[in-house]
TrEMBL record:
It comes from the Bacteria. The keyword Transmembrane helix applies. The chain crosses the membrane at residues 27-48. This is SGNH hydrolase-type esterase domain-containing protein.
Length: 361
């Protein structure tokens, strides 16, 4: 039985129960159609950019570089979602790597990819991948990514830092920290669809901020204090830190190791390190990016306890843009050369180089 009630106006004309006449419905249809067309056009334009992932903010002429970190009012980062959920090309490229390095922002600042290419990749025919995560001190996040996506390089290099990057690499927490802003890594709680939404949201937000920054600054003045934006290369994992203050300056002060050398490791850290090395399933070498808070004693003790080698440059006084916390451009180039020299002396590297031990499918 049809329960609809016909409504009429005072003149006896039938009234649309939705309150819209034919003209109103046509207007609404046109409005919805125009909105759909605009959104569709935006989607086509974003897809045509050819970046690492849908909506990525790539570099003109080199879309493998994508905006990884930014935000005028609230800073956010992309790579945690991209790697954890296998979105974009980064994981596929990491799967092709012979050597992968893990660590915190210390590694992101300290590895010069151009030097790595000239000194390691070209002479030995190897592919190197930098899978460090800015703001994530613990190696547990990277370990979970390696297991989720079956990363099996021929050699892992682990930066066994115990606090210079915000915490011990061999702890098992899943937190990220940007200064005093410390919170659980959202990627581990999101579905792939949720992570995709967050990635697109960030990119659209950053595009809007880029497009309106001039007008906003003209009205309200420049905003002080935002962290510099930086890009990441999906092919190599390299991070471009050249926008950070004094990163490219000459004559920056050098790192001074201020920690008491009697800074010993603990049984818990050794147990976690042993479990991590076992789960990674390939030869491991420990290294150390110098920073004012770092402790070489712990690196050596952990390596001896779990039976792995170290690749430790003979010096620690590399130049730093932020007073000894992270290396600058020149410091990164020098450290990378010295790291390769030390790596070449390890049995793990020599065995990988001399033997055809490519990972099996």
């Amino acid at each position: 039985m049809d329960r609809r009630v016909e409504r009429t106006d005072r003149a006896g004309h039938q009234v649309d129960p939705d309150g819209l006449g034919p003209a109103g419905r046509r207007y609404l249809g046109c409005l919805l159609g125009l909105t759909a067309a605009m959104l569709g056009g935006l989607g086509v334009w974003l897809a045509a950019q050819g970046g690492d992932h849908f909506s990525a903010i790539g570099r003109p002429g080199d879309p493998a570089w994508y905006r990884n970190f930014g935000g005028d009012s609230v800073t956010e980062i992309q790579d945690q979602d991209l790697f954890y959920h296998g979105i974009g090309r980064s994981i596929d490229n990491a799967r092709q790597a012979d050597v992968i390095i893990l660590g915190s922002s210390l590694v992101s600042f300290a590895i010069d990819q151009a030097v790595m290419h000239e000194r390691l990749e070209k002479p030995y025919g190897l592919k190197f991948y930098n899978m460090a995560f800015v703001g994530v001190a613990s190696g547990e996040f990277a370990r979970q990514i390696a297991l989720r996506h079956h990363l099996r390089p021929r050699l892992w290099i682990l930066n066994a830092d115990d606090g210079g990057g915000g915490g011990n690499f061999f702890h098992r927490n899943l937190t990220r920290a940007f200064g005093a802003d410390v919170r659980p890594i959202p990627s581990t709680k999101l579905s792939r669809y949720g992570a995709t939404y967050e990635i697109i949201r960030r990119n659209l937000r950053w595009r809007f901020e880029d497009a309106t920054r001039h007008w906003r600054e003209a009205l309200a003045g420049p905003r002080s204090g935002p962290l510099p934006r930086f890009d990441r290369d999906d092919r190599t994992g390299a991070a471009d830190m050249s926008t950070f203050p004094r990163f490219l300056s000459q004559g920056n002060p050098r790192v001074k190791m201020t920690r008491d050398p009697a800074c010993h490791t603990t049984p818990d850290v050794i147990a976690n390190a042993r479990d991590m090395v076992r789960s990674l399933g390939a030869p491991v070498v420990l290294t150390f990016v110098p920073n004012f808070h770092g402790c070489l004693t712990q690196v050596r003790e952990i390596a001896a306890a779990i039976g792995v080698e170290t690749a430790l440059p003979s010096r620690t006084d590399y130049s730093s843009w932020d007073g000894g916390g992270h290396l600058d451009g020149q410091g990164a180039a020098d450290f990378t050369r010295d790291l390769i020299d030390a790596l070449e002396q390890t049995r793990a590297f020599q065995g990988m180089r001399d033997n055809d031990d490519r990972r099996k499918p």
